């Protein structure tokens, strides 16, 4: 299973006459659906009133989020792409020959392809792995990079969760390979800040560096517009989490017509939060839920310079290089201390 990816040739590969079929490696544990169902049932009855944010990322959720990234008000994707395009060769040059470049939550790859094209331009032999939870979406989104017919960049899919990816990277056959974790979109902001550092530190046994996208914008107007767009794309994406919840539970626990989504900015936490709430009194898994009672769907923390320093200190990482936009969107190249 690992032979072809643990020792890649470090010379140019011959031109492939036909578009290649990208290999997708299934690294899922057998317990994921059970664990998500248990976490969901527990969260419904938990005083913390937060549903698992993994509910957002089924196949339909991934497509809805792709719509979000094209919204004019969603500045995160636009600014990240601009940084990647402006500094693509500098960023690519940080990645060693022979590296396993593993992207957590790869999405539609339009950002990533900028970096892969730069690696190809530099003649930098790497193996790129797109990690995501949906097999159909991996098939769809990997097609453009497969058709690029790279000679130096090999592309694979990894089907699984972040935890699956972290465990897979620690396989003995992969220990000798240099590894860079690509974690874009400021998705790390969905963790509570202490948990974010712990999450990054969890990759240390695999001896990884990181290319991390982090949003540092704390302008309430811009943030609220980004997550509460006029056309409702972001709210549609979040509400799909309840559709996924019904599938996981095996029955319509959430009457979608009775639930809505709201978002707000918390200045003290430096975070935007999105919530599910019933518009009328409802019954949920035998519990009475009054109208307006909120369940956290997802929280997006913003990282200014001080937050970034604290993150690195807690995770045992050092900023080797960084690139920032005028609105404080950041790309950080991090290495272990």
Automatic annotation (TrEMBL):
GO molecular function: methyltransferase activity
Keyword S-adenosyl-L-methionine: yes
InterPro entries given in the database record: EgtD_Methyltrsf_superfamily, MeTrfase_dom, MeTrfase_EgtD-like, SAM-dependent_MTases_sf, SAM_MeTrfase_EasF-type_put
Biological process terms in GO annotation: methylation
Sequence ranges assigned to domain Histidine-specific methyltransferase SAM-dependent in this UniProt record: 37-333
Entries under Gene3D superfamilies matching the protein: Vaccinia Virus protein VP39 (3.40.50.150)
Entry keywords, A to Z: Methyltransferase, S-adenosyl-L-methionine, Transferase
Signal sequence, renumbered to the chain: none
Family designation: Belongs to the methyltransferase superfamily.
PANTHER family per UniProt: ERGOTHIONEINE BIOSYNTHESIS PROTEIN 1 (PTHR43397), HISTIDINE-SPECIFIC METHYLTRANSFERASE SAM-DEPENDENT DOMAIN-CONTAINING PROTEIN (PTHR43397:SF2)
NCBIfam families: methyl_EasF
Name under which the protein is recorded: Histidine-specific methyltransferase SAM-dependent domain-containing protein
Lineage: Eukaryota, Fungi, Dikarya, Ascomycota, Pezizomycotina
């Amino acid at each position: 299973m690992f032979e072809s990816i643990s020792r890649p040739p470090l010379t140019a590969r011959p031109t492939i006459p036909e578009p290649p079929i990208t290999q997708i490696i299934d690294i899922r544990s057998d317990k994921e659906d059970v664990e998500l169902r248990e976490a969901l049932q527990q969260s419904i009855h938990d005083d913390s009133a937060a549903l698992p944010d993994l509910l957002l990322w089924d196949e339909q959720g991934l497509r809805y989020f792709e719509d979000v990234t094209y919204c004019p008000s969603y500045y995160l994707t636009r600014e990240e792409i601009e940084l990647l395009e402006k500094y693509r060769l500098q960023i690519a040059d940080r990645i060693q020959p022979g590296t396993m470049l593993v992207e957590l939550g790869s999405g539609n790859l339009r950002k990533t392809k900028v970096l892969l094209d730069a690696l190809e331009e530099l003649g930098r032999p790497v193996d790129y792995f797109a990690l995501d939870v949906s097999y159909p979406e991996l098939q769809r989104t990997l097609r453009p990079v497969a058709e690029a017919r790279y000679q130096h960049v090999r592309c694979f899919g990894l089907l699984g969760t972040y935890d699956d990816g972290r465990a897979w990277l620690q396989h003995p056959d992969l220990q000798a390979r240099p590894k860079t974790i690509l974690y874009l979109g400021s998705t790390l902001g969905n963790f509570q800040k202490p948990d974010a550092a712990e999450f990054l530190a969890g990759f240390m046994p695999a001896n990884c560096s990181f290319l991390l996208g982090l949003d540092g914008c704390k302008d309430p107007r811009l943030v609220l517009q980004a997550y509460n767009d006029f056309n409702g794309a972001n709210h549609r994406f979040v509400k799909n989490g309840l559709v996924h919840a019904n599938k996981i539970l095996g029955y319509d626990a959430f009457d979608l017509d009775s639930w809505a989504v709201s978002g707000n900015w918390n200045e003290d936490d430096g975070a935007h939060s999105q919530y599910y709430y019933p518009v009328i009194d409802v019954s949920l898994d035998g519990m009475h839920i009054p109208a307006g009672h909120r369940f956290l769907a997802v929280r997006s923390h913003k990282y200014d310079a001080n937050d970034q320093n604290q993150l690195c200190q807690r995770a045992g990482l050092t900023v080797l290089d960084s690139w920032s936009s005028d609105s404080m969107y950041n790309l950080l190249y991090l290495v272990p201390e």
